[in-house]
Amino acid sequence: MLSLFAADGLAADRFIVLSYHDVRDVVERDARAGQTAVGTERLAAHFQWLKDHDYHVVSVDQVLAAHAGKHPLPERAVLLSFDDGYEGVYSKAFPLLRRYGYSAMVALVGCWLDGTCPVGDGSRPADGLMTLTQLRELIDSGLVEMASHSYDLHRGLLGNPQGNEQPAGVTRRYDAAGRQYEADASYLARIRADMKRSSDVMWRMLHVRPRAIVWPYGETNTPLVEAARDAGMTMSMVLRDGDNAVADLSAVRRMLVTDNPDVEDFARMVTTQRVGDRPLHVVHVDMDYLYDPDPAQTERNIGALLDRIQGMRVNTVYLQAFADPDGDGNAEALYFPNRHLPVRADLFNRVAWQLLTRVRVKVYAWMPVLAFRLDVPDGWFVHEWRNGERKLAGHIYKRLSPFNRDARRMVGEIYEDLAKHCSFNGVLFHDDAILSDYEDVSPAGMDWLRRTGQSSRIERLRATPAARLDWARHKTAALIRWTDYLTERVRYYRPDIKTARNYYALPLLQPDSEEWYAQSLESALAGYDYVAVEAMPFMEKADDPQSWLGELVRQVARRPGGLAKTVFELQTADWEKRTPVPMEVFLDQLKWVQRQGAVHVGYYPDDVFLDHPRQEDMERVFALPRFP
Question: Are 374 and 341 in contact (CB under 8 A)?
Fold first, then answer.
C-alpha cells in the first residue's frame, strides 16, 4: 500500500511544511483533545516513512540560505514545525528527532513563555508547556529553531457588535461601549508592539531572536507580515495546504496534521498536499432574507440558516455583503462598516464568522463590481450612445464607469473596508460587470480610448463586426483589470482569498456575443479562480431546458481546464412566473448537469423560510460525503 505514495519528485526549489502541535503516548478520540495531538508511535511512523521515501527534513537555516541564493534545498524537502511549546515535544518528539537526526522548528507564544497571560483559552495548565530548561536544551542540541507564535495574538478579540471573538492579529477590536472599531493607527501600533515584544522576550529568556513567525490560527495580512519583518522575522507561516517556493517566504504554507493520522493517511497528505481534491457545492444566500429590523429575529434567522447549511453538508456559501431590498441588483447600502455607503446593519462579519466556525464552510463575499448607488457626479457612471447622442446608460444596473479613476478609488476603498472588518475566504463578483456594444462612452471611457491610441469616433468603433468585437475585447480586459484592482485591495488584509465572478450563459453559448456583454469564458478562466455561470434556463427562456443545460456544460468542457474552474449555478426560482421552480424539476436539472460532467454546482436563491429547495431532498442529493 505504501508504494502508492512514493516520493513525487518535489523540486529542489520547493518545500513542504508539516504543522504538528502536542505529542502524546495516548491520543483520545475526543475532538478537542485529539484534533491536533499526534501519538508518539504515529509520529515515529511518520518520520520513518519520510526516511524510507527519500524525503529530506531541512532546517530553518537551510530554507533561509536557499532563499538568499546560497545553497539550494534538496529535492523533496520537508520542514517540521511544532506549535505552542507543549511538554510532549520535549519528552516525546525530541528523542525521535535525535534518533533520525531531523531538524525542527518550535513556535512559542511570548506571554505564555513569561507567564503574563493564560495558556490558550485559560483551560490549559501552564505546566503542560516546556520549561525554560527544556527549551534551552532543545536549542543547544542544534536540531531545533525557536520561532515566534506572537507575543499575545494567540487569542480572540471582540470583532463585531454581536459578540464574536476573532483572531487578535487580523481583527479590528470592536469597542462595545463606544460602538466603534479600532482605528488604523491603533491597530498598526498594537501589532507592531506585539512583534517587537515577542522578539525581546525570547531574547531575554532564551538568548535567541526569532527569524520566523508562525501566525496564530494561520491568519495573517500584509501589515502583520511587514511588522514581523521589521522585527527580524523574515519567514511568515500560515496554515494552508500545498508546497512552497524558496523565493517567497512571506506566506509559507503549512499543512496542519490533524486527527492523529496513521502512516497511510500521512503518506497521502504529504504526496497529494491535499490540494484541489474536492468539488464545490455552493449555496448562494441573500443577506436581505436574513436581515430583520428586530435584531433578535435576525439572530433566529441566522440560526435557521446555519442549521440548514450544516444539514446539507455543502462546503461553500456565496453570501450577500450588500443591501438590495428592491431587488434591482444595485448596492444601496452595505452590511459592513465602510466609508462611502450607509450600513443597513453590521451583519456580514457576524454571519460569515458563524458559517466559518460553526458549519466549517468557505464563505465568499458576494459584491457588486460597478453597481453602487453612490452620490457622485453623473459623469462617473457608464454612458451609452443612443440616437446620435451620449446619455446615461438605461440598464437596470446603474454602473460606475470602469475607466473612471475616482470611481475606481472609491470602490477600492469599499472593498478594503470589507476586508478590514470581516472574515471570509473569497469574493464573488456580481453579474453587474457588463458593458454593451453601445457602452461605455462616458467622458472617462472616451478619454481611455484616446489615451490607448484607439478611435474615439463611435461610427468607427461600430463600423464592422470586427471593429465592434475589437472594442468589446478591450472592454472585457478593462473589466478584468478593474476586478484585479479590487482583489488587490482585499488581499492586503485577506491574502488567501479566492475569486469567482458571475457570468451570463450567452457569452459561453455564443462567443460572438462578447460584443453585447464584454464577457468571454477564455478571459474569465484566465482571470479568476472560478467562473460562476448562471445556468438558469428559465431566466434565459430556453425552449428545452435540459438540452440548453447540456450544451452549456459541453461549451465549458471544450475549454482546457474549463470544468475544473466553472461553477454551474442553477435557479430555484422562476422570476418571470414569480414561483419557485418545482423541486422535482430542480433536482432533475442538478443531476443532469452533473451527469454531463459538471464538477462544481450551486444554486440561487436559497429560501430558509419556505424551505426551498427542500432541505430533506438536498441532504440526500446535494450533500458532499464526509471526510474520512
Answer: yes
pLDDT at 290: 97
What are 238's three cell numbers?
Answer: 500560515
pLDDT of residue 454: 78
What per-residue confidence (pLDDT) applies to 120?
A: 72
Contact 351, 286 (CB under 8 A): no
In the block, residue with C-alpha cell 439572530: 299
CA distance 620 to 605: 19
List of domains in the chain: 2-272 (3.20.20.370), 288-372+400-435+502-621 (3.20.20.80)
Cell numbers of 49, please?
A: 516513512
Confidence (pLDDT) at 125: 58
Query: What secondary structure does DSSP assign to 93-115, as a single string?
Result: IHHHHHHHT--EEEEE-HHHHTT
Q: How far, in Å, CA of 587 to CA of 548, rounded?
A: 16
Residue 512: pLDDT band by 50, 70, 90 thresholds?
A: confident
- Cell numbers placing 516: 453585447
- DSSP strands (E only) in 371-497: 383-386, 389-392, 426-429
State mean pLDDT over 369-385: 95
Residue type, 578: R
> What are phi and psi for residue 587, nearest 5 degrees?
-65, -40
Write down the pTM of the prediction. Answer: 0.94
Residues 485 and 408 sit within 8 Å (Cβ to Cβ): yes
CA distance 113 to 126: 9
**What contacts 24+ positions apart, CB below 8 Å, involve 312-315?**
312/281, 312/283, 312/615, 312/618, 312/619, 312/622, 312/623, 313/619, 313/623, 313/624, 313/626, 314/281, 314/282, 314/283, 314/361, 314/622, 314/623, 314/624, 315/278, 315/280, 315/281, 315/361, 315/362, 315/624
Which residues does residue 467 pair with via DSSP β-bridges, in sequence order?
Answer: none
Is it the case that residue 276 has pLDDT exceeding 80?
A: no
- In 3D space, the residue among 257, 261, 269, 254 whose CA is nearest the CA of residue 16 turns out to be 254
3-class SS shares of the chain: helix, strand, coil, % to 5: 40, 20, 40
CB 507 within 8 A of CB 513: yes
Residue 500: strand pairing partners? 428, 530
Is the CA virtual torsion 519, 523, 525, 529 positive or negative? negative
CA gap 50, 20 in Å, rounded: 15
Q: Are 154 and 219 in contact (CB under 8 A)?
A: no
All residues at 6 or more sequence positions from 628 whose CB lies less than 8 Å from its CB, including other chains: 265
Residue 384 to residue 616: CA distance in whole angstroms: 48
Specify whether the CB–CB gap between 510 and 554 falls below 8 A: no
430: left (phi over 0), alpha (psi -120 to 50) or beta: beta
pLDDT band at residue 168, thresholds of 50, 70 and 90? Answer: very high
The whole-angstrom separation of Cα 291 and Cα 285 is 12
Q: What are the backbone dihedrals phi and psi of residue 451, each rounded to the nearest 5 degrees, phi first? A: -65, -25
